[in-house]
Amino acid sequence: MNSLHVGRTFLSPTVDVLLIGGGLSLFFTVAVVATGGSTSPITAAIAPVFPLVLFLVNMTHFSASTVRLYAKPNAFADFPFLTMGLPLLTLALLSLAVRFAEVVGVHVMNLYLTWSPYHYAAQAYGLALLYCYRSGVTVGDRDRVLFRVACLAPFLYAFVKGPTAGLEWFVSKAWLGAEPWATLRAGAEWLLGGAALALPPALLARSLFRGRALPLISVLVMVSNAAWWTLFFYYEAFGWATVFHGLQYLAIVMIVHVKDRAQAAGGQHGAAYHALTFYAACVALAYLLFRAWPFAFVAAGFGLAESMLLVTAVINIHHFVVDAYIWRLRRDPGYREVAAAPAAA
Amino acid sequence: MLLRAAFRVGLVAYAVAFAAGMAWTWSTHGRPPALRDSPLTLADEAYARGDVERAAREYRMVSSIDVSNYDTPKKLAEMLSRMGDASGEVDQFRRATELWPRDPATHRRLGLAYLKTRRFEEARASFERALRLVPGDGEALQGLGEALLELERYDEALRAMGDAVRALPGNAVALNSLGVALALAGRDEEAVARFEEAVRLDPQPAYVQNLARARAASREAKP
User: Fold this and answer.
1) Would you call B45 an interface residue with chain A, using a CB distance cutoff of 8 Å?
2) What phi, psi does A4 have (nearest 5°)?
3) Cα dist. A158→A21, A146, A337, B210 in Å?
4) Of the four, A264, A342, B123, B146, which is 20 to 30 A from B95 by CA?
5) For B17, which residue in chain A has the nearest alpha carbon?
6) What is the pLDDT along chain B (223 residues), one digit of tens a residue?
7) Quick check: A76 and A89 in contact, CB under 8 A?
8) What pLDDT digit, counting tens, does each position of A221-240 carry?
9) Do residue B65 and residue A80 have CB atoms under 8 angstroms apart?
10) Of A238-247, A295-304, A334-343, B147-156, the least confident
11) Chain A residues inside the 8 Å CB shell of B1
12) Which residue out of A49, A289, A304 would a mutagenesis test of the B interface target, given it has the greatest number of B Cβ atoms within 10 Å?
């Protein structure tokens, strides 16, 4: 394709662009930042329902990866470590972190905070490629490297900028504050922040120049992720980006799950049935993991602070690991199904 | 085989943990875990019950584990302020400003905490940072005026306090502060006028006393 095109969408161009592409988040990010960020009236208006939104979207997206893993045909045989070993390792890590919260817990927390932007970058990369494949746009090795660089730039920006997570986790603040490191760091922030925002449109321009226009939705996915991490301050990004990232994730995982189920069940139930049962399972698991689990540690005598924070951190880390396996693009039959380009007419 | 057996044991452990968590909240709160439950809301509840020790423990723990969380140091600072620990308040607000340098309110609160600990130069810098983010913020201008007054930079203090009075119309505190600054600068008649306005708005003893002193000074100054 030689001209601008949205790409071949899953549900409809509007829904895909707004939810999976991150169009909605882009409007929201710009509106919140333009009206004062944390002190924005938009933030204040949403504050009363934010815990519910966070639960229904963000917390549920974490449990979605677990539900998806165990719902995959032959999951135990194909992923013995992931399905049986990792939950035990998670339990052991959590117990250790809660018991030695001030020594181990702080590093578990920092691992989760540092890994998060990388995980987002990986999701943006996967989705951008997915829409290219679906749209029949050929992506060569060089293109993939460029996609990777564009998607990783926001992560590198967040890593360098911090505060506290990323670079500051490894290098002392005093050292980073001394010259010439402080100037170098500030320069790197500018460079990476600029690259994060400039690379996706540059990739689009390159593709047009080469006569193989990228789907706009692929570019939008990368732009949204860059906007979350560069326009929001790190901590703000953890509030809002998690919601939009979760929305994006839930949409795509449900599409893949519904395709899987529809094939396996031989059309006994409709797509809505599979989508709703999947989401209901995710909500129930999210409640048990995020709401009930921390209180088990409180019942055992630990404080709610370390219990709740470290449960959240460990669930995040579990999700990052599970995701790294279950979305291996070319190996997942469900992914192959949704990524398939339309047959030539 | 071993992994499968260990996994089954693990599943039981997970089920027991979930059940224990639910049971604990039912027995202590008479309800299942709620979406709004968080270490900070429970710390606030503990504080409201008068369990300051429990509240402070939760805040400190959140603060030491979730090092990126901006709300915690801010809330901990507010609690320390209520407990009268001004230097602890300074530490926590300073940490909050490092985590989120874009929040003008936190810079202003840090400025006020510096004023309490008589670190006037740092207070001035904090108020100026708040004003760079929200130019014309009346409370920050007032704080800046007070810091400058303590630093004996009277002209700048008078300018800041005059701006504060204009930004906060009908604010007795701002009028009283401006009155004090004018009196210290030897402009007794103007001080009397400001104190009179302050007393009219809020006839509290401190303002009445300031008015009486300024009137006396004004009378003495007249030939």
Assistant:
1) no
2) -60, 135
3) 21, 19, 34, 53
4) B146
5) A296
6) 788 899 999 999 999 999 999 999 999 889 999 888 887 777 888 888 888 777 877 888 888 888 777 778 888 888 888 878 888 899 999 988 988 888 888 999 999 999 999 999 999 999 999 999 988 899 999 999 999 989 989 889 999 989 999 998 888 988 998 998 898 888 888 999 999 999 999 888 999 999 999 888 888 776 6
7) no
8) 999 999 988 887 656 666 77
9) no
10) A334-343
11) none
12) A304
| Sign of the alpha-carbon torsion through B106, B110, B115, B117 | positive
Residue type, B190: E
Residue A209 phi/psi, 5-degree rounding, is -60, -35
Residue B94 contacts residue B118 (beta carbons within 8 Å): no
Positive or negative, the Cα torsion across B21, B24, B25, B30?
positive
Which tokens hold the place of A130? 């997915």
* DSSP track, A151-206: HHHHHHHHHHH-SSSTHHHHS-HHHHHSTTHHHHHHHHHHHHHHHHHHHHHHHHHH
Q: The pTM is what?
A: 0.82
Report ipTM (2 d.p.). Answer: 0.82
Is residue B23 exposed (0-12), middle (13-18) or buried (19+ Cβ within 10 Å)?
middle
Query: Inter-chain contact B21–A164, Cβ cutoff 8 Å?
Result: no
Chain A interface includes B216 (CB < 8 A): no
Residue-averaged pLDDT of chain A = 87
Q: Which residues contact A242 (CB under 8 A, 6 or more apart)?
A: A54, A58, A116
- Structure tokens given for A286: 């999210």
Quick one: angle between helices B138-150 and B120-133, nearest 10? 160
Say whether A38 and B42 touch across the interface (CB within 8 A).
no
At residue A5, the 3 state secondary structure works out as strand
Kindly determine whether residue A233 and residue B102, on different chains, have CB atoms separated by under 8 Å. yes
